[in-house]
Amino acid sequence: MSGNTEEDSTSAGTQTVVRENKHVPWRILQAFTGSTFTWPFVAGFLFFVIAPIVISFRVVLYNKQKSGLGLGEAKETFVGLANIVKAVQDATFWTGLGRVALYAVIMVPLTQFLSMVMALLIDSVKAKTAGKFRILLLLPYMTPGIVSTIVWIYLYSPSTSPFKWTGINFFDSSMVWFSMGQMAVWAGLGFNMLIMYGSLQSIPHEIIEAARIDGASELRIAFSIKVPFMVSSVTFTTLFGIIGTLQLFNEPYFFRSISPQTITKDFTPAMQIYNEAFMVGNINYATALSLLLALVLCVASIILYIAQGKVNRA
Questions:
Q1: 153 lies in which domain range?
Q2: Residue 115 in contact with residue 140, Cβ under 8 Å?
Q3: What is the pLDDT of residues 77-88, one digit of tens each?
Q4: Are residues 57 and 89 in the same domain?
Q5: Residue 190 and residue 256 in one domain
Q6: Which of 185, 200, 259, 286 gets the most CB atoms within 10 Å of its CB?
Q7: Which family, according to UniProt (predicted)?
């Protein structure tokens, strides 16, 4: 009898161990099943971001040259860091970068300020009204950049513009930056506003109510409570604004067809890269310029994050 009891206990213990061993693979299987939802993004990131970066490091080390009179097939020649050195010493690239940097110094803060004001105004109205304005302001951002640029060009055109009664020539050399800046503000205002408005929704309602009970005005609440909560979202949208501005291409590219004497083929770094790659056909040098531009954007991002850290610690 006792022997049977020992056998039963041993059998029960074995079954428990088997069940526990089976339980572990099931959890792993669940985690694996959940991770499959990320596979499309991971595949796209690897093929369209990581792979081009890796390939570009090889492309930049070579040049394609034709022998003799330029007839025959081009041969790939190893040149080491010659393309990188040439890009660093390219005065045209740095001049174009200076143009867009000056443009960014003016346009990014202006866009951020207007977006912050719109987010605060929408946050102060009822939820139903706020929803309507959010959709209305987000529509320009949802419009493809090429389409919106073409629409604005027609609005600026002297023959079709509803503003022609003002007598202002929006394609004049003195008005080109203003015209492109107006398009940029119109396109980026909605996205920035939505991100900032989302950060305002994370403010505990009790803090706002306590401030109102203490007699704080809405303006005081906005500056002392709401604006500090928006610092992280402002940093995020500023970073995207700087990156987008330094890669300025659509607006000057279309304006070039109207005002070629003002906007040259290498007016911005992105236009110069496009010209080198697809007009001149020098993919290797265009890749070097692209890597240099990416490095500049990386440095600008690091500086911005360091500045944000100092603001948060203060």
A1: 83-312
A2: no
A3: 888 888 999 999
A4: no
A5: yes
A6: 286
A7: Belongs to the binding-protein-dependent transport system permease family.
